[in-house]
Amino acid sequence: MPTAYKCLARILFLLFFLLMILSYSGCNNPKVSEYEGTFLSNHEAREFSALDHKGRVISNLNHEADAALLTFLFTKCTDVCPIVTSSIKRALNLLEDPNEVIVVVVTVDPSGDTLTEVQNYLAKWDLGDNWSYITGPEELVQPIWTSYFVNPQLDQSVKNSLETAFSRKYKV
C-alpha cells in the first residue's frame, strides 16, 4: 500500500476514534436541567390592577382574553425594547386572530413614559387595541416590578449622563 494511503487510513482511524470518545463522553453526563439560567420557584405573582394609556382598568388575573402577555419596556429605549416590541408583534401576527392575546406593557421609566410618549410609541409601532401600556408614578409600578423580579435602574446620575449624551452636538 502506498505511503499516502497508509497516512490517510491512520488519520481516518484517529478521527473515528475521537468521534467515538466524544460521543461516549456525552452519555455519562446526565442533564441537570432541561433549561439554562436561573431557576425560579413557583412564585405566584401579586395581583395588580392599573389604568392603561386609554384609561382602561387592566388586571393580570382578570381579563377578557384567553391569553395575556406581560412585558416591561420604556418608550425612549433604543436597544432591546424595539426588538422585544417587534418580536411580540411578529409572534401575534402568526396567530389567526392577533387580537385574541392581550399585551400588557409596564413601564420601567415612569418619569419618562408620559401619556404623550406612550401614545407616540404605540403609534410608531402601529400597535393595536389589544396592547395596554401601564405608566404612572413609581409608587404605582414598583409593586408590579417587585412581583415579577424586575429591577429597573433608576439612578439619577445615569439619567443625567444619558441626557447629557443625547443633548450634545458633534461636528463631523
Task: Summarize the structure in short.
By secondary structure, the chain is an alpha/beta fold. It is built from 5 helices and 5 strands; from the N terminus they run αβββαβαβαα.
Describe this structure in words.
The structure is a single chain. This protein has a domain at 49-151: Glutaredoxin. The N and C termini lie far apart (69 Å). A hairpin with a 5-residue loop joins strand 1 (49-51) and strand 2. The protein has 172 residues and is α/β, with parallel strands linked by helices. The longest helix has 25 residues, at 3-27. Helix content is 41%, strand content 14%. The chain has helices at residues 3-27, 80-93, 115-124, 138-147, 156-167; strands at residues 49-51, 57-59, 67-73, 101-107, 131-134.
* Fraction in helix: 40-55%
Q: What portion of the residues fall into strands of 2 or more residues?
A: 5-15%
* CATH third-level topology of the domain at 49-151: Glutaredoxin
- CATH-level-4 superfamily name of the domain at 49-151: Glutaredoxin
Element pattern in H and E:
HEEEHEHEHH
What is the second-level CATH architecture of the domain at 49-151? 3-Layer(aba) Sandwich
CATH class of the domain at 49-151: Alpha Beta
